[in-house]
Amino acid sequence: MKVALFVPCYIDQFYPHVAKASLELLEKLGCDVEIPMGQTCCGQPMANSGFSHINQGVDQHFEKLFTGYDYIVGPSGSCILHLKEHHPNLKIRSSVFEICEFLVDVLQVKSVPGKFPHTVGLHQSCHGQRGLGLSSMSERNLPHFSKLGTLLDLVEGLTWKLPAKVDECCGFGGTFCVTEEAVSVKMGQDRIQEHEEIEVEYIVGADTSCLMHLDGILKRKGSKIQIKHIVEILNHA
Amino acid sequence: MRSHSAVAAEFIADGERTDWHNETLWWVRAKRDKASKALPEWEDLREQASQIKNFTLDNLGELLVQFEQNAIQNGIKVHWAADAKEHNQIVHSIIAKKGVSQLVKSKSMLTEECHLNEYLAEKGIEVVDTDLGERIVQFRKEAPSHIVLPAIHLKKEDVGETFHEHLGTPKGNKDPQFLTEAARQHLREKFLQSKVAITGVNFAVAETGEFVVCTNEGNADMGAHLADVHIACMGLEKIIPYRNDLGVFLRLLARSATGQLITTYSSHFKAPRKGQEMHIVLVDNGRTRQLARPEFRNSLKCIRCAACFNTCPVYRRSGGHSYHQAVAGPIGSILAPNFDMKANADLPFASTLCGSCSNVCPVKINIDQQLWLWRQEITKVGFAPKGKELGMKGMAILFAHPRIFQFAGRIGRWVLKNVPFLANNKLNPWYWQREMPEAPKESFQEWYKKRDKV
């Protein structure tokens, strides 16, 4: 099974430890992982800003690097959703997987290396949850499930909780976070308050962009709560 | 016109009021959740409603003609209006024949969309809005901020003050029951005086030529039953094929809107009573234009329940007036560009694309996807802010050239580490209320190159 690890641009530059954890975790779970060098971005920042029509160069670059793999796996729900919904190449669209989805549905893992004796609050990112269907959604009248929860249950010593509004958006939203700064920050502050109310040490999610936004607010506030990408915990020995 | 983000920032500046607005609407959403989850067939009902509306849009022409024929047979006078102006002229001409200077109107978002009140005011005719929330905002010369709860941006203290000024209630009295009673007495007088009543329409049944008006206050009934002339104004898309279909829509509407099992009044109007005149004005006003857009046509399935408002994390924190449209919220943001793409270019961007709106929608409109699609349309015709356009074009080049990307990344991380004030300043909206991420010394790909060599 040939797996290409897709490392979104901002993870490559600002959160390399998330990419390292993804790589190590997949390797520990027996995958033959390749990192197509020279990879950049999925194209989402432009497309969600209304500029999908200038994305040909970015799309072609992605296609060139990521053709020929059985699976393209990435630690970011929203980037993966963008590729799945909007990349012009059908083979790319059908072989991209968000990493939790890949672990649960493809690898069907029954154990993970991670030990993490802490209480964490789960942040369900909208694009992962509602877009990719990583868990059931509070609006719908359908059976309950959570792929992230399934994975966290495998981590030794960990307790996970959901905030009162179980799947409310954190307010990041791509360029929304600066063009609608006031609303974006207010949404983030409210999200953090709900995590504080359930007394967690970490906020954990599968989308680094949400976590980056929440972390910016947590740090400004001087909060003790830290952020972690779920792969860091699953891989945490 | 001021942009959504500017008005929203002003709204949020009053943190306590924003929290109250947010939690009040969330409470309505929670009631909707409870009511919808009590029905095991909820998701099937949504699917059925969606299919009925799809059928309706596919056959709109025939259904409208069928409705017209049946309504005429029932003794109703049917008028057709191509746009808001024609709608207002038609309504005015009916009123002018009666020679009245005042009339009552129950809630109708269509008449808000057409600015009927302002039009009639210019002709010397006063419209008294009889929905309690609408009467409150009318006193304050404001627009409704929510299509189901028009005065939801106001607290009881605000209403007490408004009623003190306009109805002479004691200053400082903010008791909801007392204030409601004052409004009731005031409106009763208006009902008794009015010879003409305007109502909206929730559903118009092609099969029978009847229409259904849903209210919780009974104000549509009170107006229509006391007046000599009843004018019902409706957008073309309010048609449903059969009376039986109401069994689907009435169940969905109230549960989605407020978590009620059914609206207090679901009144059927089929024929004028003896001596009464009944008119229906069927209004296009851009609807057929939207119908012709394959990607956006299904926005016309909307039954105006406002569930998407109540669930929207952006709407709850920015208030309805920030949308500068009669219909605010997520659904308003996909309807508004059809009216005027330039003036409403900000609205499809007033969303994080979280998708909650599409999940609560009782007729399964893919609202979040249409927000995304409108963004593409808006930038293609050049209505994106110039700075954003330049930035995006730059990024598209950057991401197509890996060396430039890695080089730019190194510069960016170096700046954050060594001269952070270049990023941490007032010009950077991220930094206003958030810290910038910490810059690692090497990117993942730089690290991986070295790992490979080991």
Task: Describe the structure in your own words.
The complex is a heterodimer of chains A (237) and B (454). With 237 residues, chain A is of the alpha/beta class. Chain A is 47% helix and 13% strand. Chain A has helices at 9-14, 16-28, 44-48, 56-66, 77-86, 90-95, 99-106, 126-131, 147-152, 176-179, 181-197, 208-221, 230-234; strands spanning 2-5, 32-34, 71-74, 96-98, 119-123, 159-161, 202-205, 226-229. The two termini of chain A are 25 Å apart. The radius of gyration of chain B is 25 Å and the shape is globular. Chain B folds into 3 domains: 1-38 and 308-362 and 371-384, no CATH class; 39-285, NagB/RpiA/CoA transferase-like (Rossmann fold); 391-453, no CATH class. In chain B, strand 5 (203-205) and strand 6 (210-215) form a beta hairpin. The N and C termini of chain B lie far apart (61 Å). With 454 residues, chain B is α/β, with parallel strands linked by helices.
Number of strands of chain A: 8
Assembly category:
heterodimer
Q: What's the mean pLDDT score of chain B?
A: 97
The rough form of chain A would be described as: globular
How is the CATH topology of the largest domain in chain B named? Rossmann fold
CATH class membership of the largest domain in chain B: Alpha Beta
- Greatest contact pair? A-B, 74 and 76 residues
CATH first level of the largest domain in chain A: Alpha Beta
Please mark out the parts of chain B with pLDDT under 50 across 5 or more consecutive residues, or reply none. Answer: none
CATH superfamily of the largest domain in chain B: NagB/RpiA/CoA transferase-like
From the 3D coordinates, which CATH architecture of the largest domain in chain B would you assign?
3-Layer(aba) Sandwich
Task: Give the rounded overall mean pLDDT of chain A.
Answer: 97
Number of helices of chain B: 22
Distance between the termini of chain B: 61 Å
Q: How many structural domains can be distinguished in the coordinates of chain A?
A: 2
Unreliable runs of chain A? none
- Residue share in helix of chain A: 40-55%
Helix content of chain B: 40-55%
InterPro entries (chain A): Cys_rich_dom (IPR004017)
Protein name (chain A): (Fe-S)-binding protein
GO molecular function, one term (chain A): oxidoreductase activity
Organism (chain A): Sandaracinomonas limnophila
